[in-house]
Design brief:
This protein has about 240 residues and is of the alpha/beta class. Strand 1, helix 2 and strand 2 form a beta-alpha-beta unit. Helix 10 crosses helix 11. The longest helix has 14 residues. The chain is globular and about 50 Å long.
Length: about 240
């Protein structure tokens, strides 16, 4: 997903431009820190105190120049209007958050309002069009049957999460003035690789890991594979 995001940033903004980035639901700060290292000014919004502490501890180990480019704000992604002015950011990230929100439209609307004209919105969501198939491939027949009729299902850890359909989010983004520019699949094959054994094997072998990433990257941009990915990465552009 990081490669996909970088591809969009390079293709969408002038080379060398330092972007104002808002990372909603920043978690441990992986993407925020990566983008700060690339020279961008990043604001991370997170409500989980443990995640914030982890992000700040990681940030403390970075050089001063990078630390100065990251601001951490405690708050809920649904309250962006409380913390920031509309149009304040060139890029807004919201990765792995919509799946935890019962009503995603107000959140997405708030994210779109944060974008400056021409700004890029990056969403990472559960793929509602593939939930039944993914459960079936794992041999979870009850989960597959349920997934036909509901956007909610248990993830690998047993937590209840919600999935989104590409057509629904495409319509939502168009209605908010940030129409879908492109989309990718994420984790096309790795979720169903024999209880993760093959993935773990690849992680321990650099050459295998390179090949694994190449396969996932190719599949994530190629039909029909991207349509059955576990996750969808959608990029919209503010008009």
């Amino acid at each position: 997903m990081a490669r996909q995001l970088d591809e969009q940033l390079v293709g969408h903004f002038p080379v060398g431009r330092r972007l104002r980035v808002l990372d909603v639901g920043m978690g441990r700060g992986t993407q925020a820190l990566r983008l700060a290292r690339a020279g961008h000014q990043v604001t991370g919004l997170e409500r989980d105190a443990e995640m914030i502490a982890t992000a700040r501890a990681t940030l403390a180990g970075e050089p001063e120049g990078i630390r100065e480019r990251v601001r951490v704000v405690e708050g809920d992604g649904r309250d962006t209007g409380v913390h920031f002015l509309p149009g304040s950011f060139d890029v807004v990230l919201c990765h792995g958050v919509l799946m935890c929100v019962a009503e995603p439209d107000p959140l997405v609307a708030g994210l779109a309002r944060m974008l400056a004209p021409g700004g890029l919105l990056s969403l990472l969501v559960r793929n509602g069009d593939a939930s039944a198939m993914r459960s079936g491939l794992r041999g979870d027949w009850a989960g597959a049957l349920t997934a036909f009729d509901t956007p909610c299902h248990a993830d690998g850890s047993g937590l209840e999460v919600r999935a989104d359909r590409l057509t629904d989010l495409t319509a939502t983004l168009a209605g908010l003035g940030a129409p879908l520019h492109t989309w990718y699949g994420v984790r096309v094959f790795t979720d169903t690789a024999v209880e993760g054994a093959r993935v773990a094997h690849a992680l321990g072998r650099p050459d295998d890991l390179v090949t694994l990433l190449a396969v996932e990257e190719r599949a994530g941009r190629t039909d029909p594979y991207r349509g059955v990915a576990s996750l969808l990465h959608l990029c919209g552009v503010r008009g």
